Amino acid sequence: MSQPGGGPDTADCNGGIVSTSIGPVTSLPADYSAFGSTDPLYDRAGDRIRWFCPWYISDQVDLARMLDAVAGLERRESPGRVTIRVVSRGDLSPQVGQLLGATGFQVEATMPLGDASDRIVTYIARLRPSRRSSPADSSSEQALLAQINAGPRKGAAAIREEFHQLGGFQVEQVGPGTLSTADIDRLIGMHRATFPTFPYEFEHKLALMLAAPDEYLISQVRSVGNGRIYAFSNLEINTVPLADGSDLRLAEYDNSMRAANCPELGELKSLGAILRLELALRARDCGVDLCHAESRASLGAINRISYDLGMNFGGTLEQHLLISGPSDVNYQNPSRLESMNVWYLNRVQLAALEKSPAC
Fold first, then answer.
1. What is the pTM of this model?
2. Are 305 and 277 in contact (CB under 8 A)?
């Protein structure tokens, strides 16, 4: 079996996918998770530490405790990047911000919950100087984002109507026992064609997702005529127990992809949008506080899907992830690592989404 990025596997409208099987998976390392861990975790493939800190950060004592908790792993691994998601009530205080700057950390993205709790999830990061993007490449990513933000949003109603106009396709919820061997082969090939470089082998993650339907919501688009799958997306749901005894329920988009070279799809570019809408509605029904995505800053289509759905832009995670695929940015200093744009819908915005027969 070829490794991600190393083989000829493809997923197009005519099939042609090598036969690949997935066996039962009883346990997988935490780095298969889009969320990561509430303990500091080193991702060797991406040379980064990632951590969701379960303590509220409000002053320099909290900050010192947080930095001390990650210091040992950082000394041992000497990573190119440290990413910590922290929770605060209101914005991080100016004093905390100044102390962060003195340690080399910077605020990269924020996601307010938008409710009476006034809680905000903030991404902070510290990068090795050699890992940073060049100013020219960062400017190109920002220009692509500005172009997207300057356009009109479609909104949920238009996304549904566009999908209805296509005809002959249906949105399906995916769970244990719903995929045939041919379906699984097609999805694996589709993933490898979409992401030549990826942190893990998709077949292992797919087995995990199918075995844990309470933690992974999966939706796909299938042709009513030929029975083939044409698009796929999933959400990973995590409940984070915070130090004050409360919980934070997060849902993160992962593995969004569609088949290539499909004339029967016409000019439709938003199969991903109907799936993202469907998954957001399911996340809302699961009581999620934040539904968010980390999308490649180099690719306009995936960021436009978030924008069209009404998601908020939270910020950009610089050189965050080992990943590759089609790009709309002509990089002067290309890297196997890519920056990711953060988009989110909070609990209030999720509640405003209306259910539709389209989903």
1. 0.87
2. no
